[in-house]
Structure formats: structure tokens, C-alpha cells
Design brief:
The complex is a heterodimer of chains A (390) and B (224).
Chain A: H1 6-25, E1 30-35, E2 47-53, E3 56-63, H2 71-74, H3 80-87, H4 95-110, H5 116-144, H6 149-169, E4 178-179, E5 182-183, H7 191-214, H8 217-223, H9 231-236, H10 242-245, H11 253-256, H12 278-301, E6 321-329, E7 332-340, E8 348-352, H13 354-360, H14 362-365, H15 371-381, H16 385-389
Antiparallel strand pairs in A: 1-2, 2-3, 4-5, 6-7, 7-8
Chain B: H1 2-9, H2 18-31, E1 35-41, E2 45-50, H3 55-64, E3 69-77, E4 114-122, E5 127-134, E6 143-146, H4 155-166, E7 168-171, H5 197-201, H6 206-209
The chains are: A alpha+beta (390), B alpha/beta (224).
Amino acid sequence: MTMLSERQQLSYIAAQAADARLNVELETEGMTLNIGPQHPATHGTLRIIARLDGEQVVWAEPSAGYMHRGYEKLTEVRTFPQVTALINRIDWLGSFANEVPFILAAEQLMDIEAPPRAQHIRTILFELSRIANVSLFLGDLGVQMGAVTPVFMAFRDREYVLNLIEGATGGRFHPNFDRIGGLKDDLPKGWLDETRQVMKKLRNFCDEIEDLLFGNEIFQSRTRGIGVIPADVARQYGLSGANLRASGVDWDLRRDQSLPLAYDKVDFRVWTHPDGDSWARCWIRLQEVREATKIVDQLIETLPPGPVMTKVPRIIKVPEGEAWVSTENPLGEMGYYVVSKGDLGPFRVKIRSASFNNISITPWVLKGVYVPDIITILASLYFILGDIDR
Amino acid sequence: MAQLSDTETGEATPVVDELRDDIVAKLRAELGDAVVDVHQIPGVDLWVRVTPEAWRSAGEALHSQGFDYFCFLSAMDWMPSPFGDGENDPTEEVEEDPSANEIRQGYAGGDTRFQMLARVTDTRRHVSVTLKADLPESADGSISIATWIPVYAGANWHERETHEMFGIHFDGHPDLRNMYLPGDFEGYPLRKDFPLLARLVKPWPGIVDVEPMPASDDDEGDDS
């Protein structure tokens, strides 16, 4: 403040005092705000109940369960090969990735391993479902903040990936392609060449989105520094995938565990970000789509010849035992705790889905934020309702 | 060093998993007799069963060992389902097998029908532990165990889910409302004696349709 006379100073103080009195009189009012179940930000039907003080959230609680299908009970009356048709529908944007950990758990119990070619193709399809899933997230991100263009671009380029998945498996959304001991079929003719082209298109799409969305000032101001989750809180809640890495935890199940998948044969980078805010979570996902296209490119070059199915009995009985296998799915750590009693079907399957843990942090992270930020934080945490409710 | 290379060239040495052995040793040192049983598949996975009284302190001990990543928490009902497994032909004669109704616990053993099941991970050493605990029923049939929320905040929703699905009460949990089911729902769906009505009313339709597969000589896989 430049030189002020005593009189000016006094009037300034008086004005401040008057303002303060006004604020006391304009007391904020508490209210309860219901977001969802039907809301574009809820990727299905998640309902969020938020108690507000003025425009600030004092308490928020998601209410899940609008899509609970009871898969853990249903798996108990199905045979092992039948279960894959169910678990396809958990995270419906990256269906193939849901099948892999369950099949791997069954194979671990049976002590068999898929042939190298099948492992390679599994990894390729796994990464393709990651691209299909996360590219939709990148487009959807714009819609949450009022930008409509990115979602059209996302649907345009995701279509190429879905066509690839359909070409290889026969199903666009629910491939049901993975079998105990290998895969249903080999890849069709010409598929590899087309995949190379599509991967180029997807890298272009990433550049476009980065320019259009991540370079946008409105996007930055609405995500930077908002919804910060520190690393120790993220670990305590079991956040996984990009949400965990955005908090600076260098943990990726593709790299940090040995599974019969082809990840040890490719060179890729696990991105982390120190900030832990909404921006970091979105940015990590963008980088992951890029890495996924590189992984697919490398795997196509090194695809080994040979069969895609190992010898398994026609009627599959899984020996008694327990196995836990989890993989780095598009949404995070997805795992199955499979208990077999030597029967045709599993005795119990505990499904650990990524979104369930990722969303359980919302009461913590939404405390104290402003109403519009609820939407961006939820969008950046990224969940699929089927993955919460199972 | 010369000795080390000798052992490396030696064939079929039993797999030694120092990392997991070390975890078990530290747990035993901290918890003493509370560690009831350990099952290890070297290089793959580790199961530890503790007493129900030590459930919380086992979580704390693991947390202080660096297992600060919470994976999941759930329960197991080891009773074989009285309704069968649903994929067998109901018209077919089944041989009476008295061992079929026996409660057989899995890895790391156990004495009770229900067991706790939780898994935590150390993201620095890249290792995980599956923790189990017996769940004895009290005189009035209720089952309860201490909550893990003070150790792993993420256990909150998992315990709510376990509560409504298995009917296990978590002492000290602030909010055990149902997540999925209506508030006045009766029964605990994931218990084995809870019938899956859809399957009882109409048996698996695939059973009647299935035709015997043509037998081929070169097929190793047999029905046996």
C-alpha cells in the first residue's frame, strides 16, 4: 500500500469491519446435494450424497450398489470356463483384461502355462483393451469440464481399436476369448498390419488430446492442485493403477511381478507424477495410452510362431488349492482370489476390482472441495460402475 | 564367492525364499504364539494365519514392516454348499460321499467354518502377504472381529461389504450400513447356506441340452 494518510487508513479499516459484519449476516446455509444416480460423471449409476456449507463440501459419501449383480455368488454355481463370460462384464470398457487374471489363476492352480504365442497375443489384447478403455476416459474428461469435442475424437479413434478386438476375438465389448491353457483362436490374416496402422493413429490421437485438452488453460486451472492425494493415503486406501502412480508411488504390476505374460520381453516406461492432483491422474493416463501403443508395436514385431493352445483335458477340473493373481488393468489392480476344491467350478472367487478401492477414498478426498470440483475429481479418479458393484 | 557359484551350478536345489522367510520370522518375533500357521509357496505367495485376537495387531505388525498398501479384505465360508455346485445334472444319481459335507479349510489350515481373509502388499519390496484368521462363533451365533480401519483406512468399505455378505461384525467400525442390499434384507448372501434362488427354481439349462461328445482316440483329455 502506498502512502496513506491516517484518515484514509481509518476509513479502510472501517470498510473492512463493515465487510466482516456483512459476512456474518450472510451466513452460509447447509444443504444436502444429491449427485446422480443418473449423471454423466458417474459412468453408470453412482450416487453421491454431499452435505454442503455454502459451496463447500463438508461431508460426501458415494452410495454404490445400483448395479450389484452378485458375481461372487454366481461364480460358485458355474464351471471354470463359464466364469469368463461373467467376469467380462465387470469393467465393460476393457473386458478382455478382466479375463486374464482369472484364467492365469486357474492355470496356476492346474500348473499349466499357455504357449508363448498365446502369452504374446494375450498381452497384445490386454494392452488393446487398455487403449480402448483409457482413450474413452481421455475424451470423456473434456465433457466433464464442458468441452464436447474431445469425446467425439475419442469415439472416432477408439472405434479402430474396437474393430481390432472384434477382428481377433469376434466380440467388440465382451470378447470371451481367453481359455484355460491358451486362446480360442489364432489371430486372423492381415491383423498385424492393420494393428500397426491403428497404433499410429492412436499416437496421433494422444498428441491431439494433449494439445487440445491438456494444453487448455481452463482444463489446467480446474485440475491443477485439486483433489490432492498424498502417497501414504493412496496406499492405505489401496488406490491402484494411474491413481497410485499419480501420487508418486512407483508400482506397476506389469513390471513388478512375474506372470506368464509377455511384459518382460518389451521395453516400456512406468510413468509417475509427484503431485497427486487431478491433473497428475489425467496426465499419467495419457502417457499410459502412449506406452500401451509402444508395447503393442514391440510385441507385434516379436510375435513367436507356434500353437495358441496347450493340451488341456476336455472337461476341466481344477486341483484343490488357492491362488491369487492380479494384473495391472486399465483401471488399476484387478485380482481374483480363487479357491478350488477340485471340482468343475470354483469354490469361492473373491473379486478385487480396482474401482472399488479407488472410489472408497472419495469421502476423504471430497472433504472441503467446492461443488464443481466434485465432478473433476470423480472424473480423474476414473471408475466404471460395474467395477465397483461387481 | 567361490562357494556361491558352486551352489548355483548345483542342480535342483530346493527353492529358498529368503524374503518371505524373513517376513515370517519378523512376524513370529512380534506376535509370538499368535501366528498359528504359515503356508508358503516359495517365490510365489505367502499365507499366514493368526489368532482372531491378534487380527488387528497382525495388521499393525505388517504395516510397520512396510506392507502399507491395502489390497483387499474379505471372508471365507468353508462349509460345502448344501445345494450342490449347480453345474451337475440333478436327474443323475450321485454317489453318496460322506467327505463331501466335511468342512475342509484351505492353505494355512483352520478350525472354524468362517475365516477372515485379507491381503496387503509392500510396494517397495514387491511382495504380498495373505492373512487369515479363524472366526469362532459366540454363544448367540454372532461372529465378530476387530476392525482394521485404524491401520488401513481403505478397509472401511471392504468391512462393510463383508458385514452384509457374511454377517461378520467388525468391532469399532463406525458405519456398518449395507452397501449393496436393501437395509431390511434378511440373510447373508455369500454364506454357503444362502440359496441362489434362480438356480434352485430352474437348474442350469445347459445340462439337459448337452450331448455326449464323440470320443476320439487321439484325445488325451478324458472325462475321467
